[in-house]
Amino acid sequence: MIRACLAPLGAPEIEALEAIETSLRDILGLEVSRLDALAEPAQAFDAGRRQYSSTLILKELVRHCPKEAIILGVAEVDLFIPTLSFVFGQAQLDGCAAVVSLARLRQEFYQLPPNLGLLLARARKEAVHEMGHTLGLTHCLDAACPMSISTSVRQVDMKSELFCDTCRALLQEKTALDRGLLHTPNDEEKRR
């Protein structure tokens, strides 16, 4: 079983962390543990944008990632990458680190009344999306799949937490390869 560590950045709500842990276990089949909270990385703050660089946060998370594990940072701060005005999260494709921000998943960000249930649903979907990237999954064209790209919170709301058939099959193949249960053609050649 692949080991995942949840790293709170700052002080995200316990309910959000618990919901994310459950999704990572139930949907991705990961063994999940929670690390002690890390400080919000001040060096990632861009004063001109009034946002945090998700790329710099990923670099910091890699430093805290235990050996033979993957790590998901859960932040309250608004994230960006240079080519986009914001991101809900970012991950290293087939890497060890991912980050999700709760900031734009909150109704309050859009001047609407708080809705904890909606926040938790959105957080679970985005956590599954970003951790899916660390496991090798790319963006999916099925808008209902959690691996579809989201450029608005409405697109997040349209997603399911469950993978489409194609992404589920790719994930099962990837995790089987990681556990040594599947052999690639190259493995067969090496044995000859």
The structure class reads alpha/beta
Q: What is the residue-mean pLDDT, rounded to a whole number?
A: 91
Termini gap: 29 Å
CATH superfamily of the domain at 3-135: Collagenase (Catalytic Domain)
Structure description:
This protein is α/β, with parallel strands linked by helices and 192 residues long. The protein has a domain at 3-135: 3-Layer(aba) Sandwich (Collagenase (Catalytic Domain)), CATH 3.40.390. 36% of the residues lie in helices and 19% in strands. Strands 2-1-5-9-8 form a 5-stranded mixed sheet, with helices on both faces. The radius of gyration is 17 Å and the shape is globular. The two termini are 29 Å apart. Residues 181-192 have low confidence and may be disordered.
Secondary structure topology:
Elements: E1 3-8, H1 14-26, E2 31-34, E3 45-46, E4 51-53, H2 54-64, E5 70-75, E6 79-81, E7 84-87, E8 89-91, E9 97-101, H3 116-134, H4 153-158, H5 165-178, H6 185-191
Parallel strand pairs: 1-2, 1-5, 4-6, 5-9
Antiparallel strand pairs: 3-4, 6-7, 8-9
Helix pairs in contact: 1-3
Observed structural traits:
6 helices, four-stranded mixed beta sheet, five-stranded mixed beta sheet, alpha/beta, 192 residues, Collagenase (Catalytic Domain)
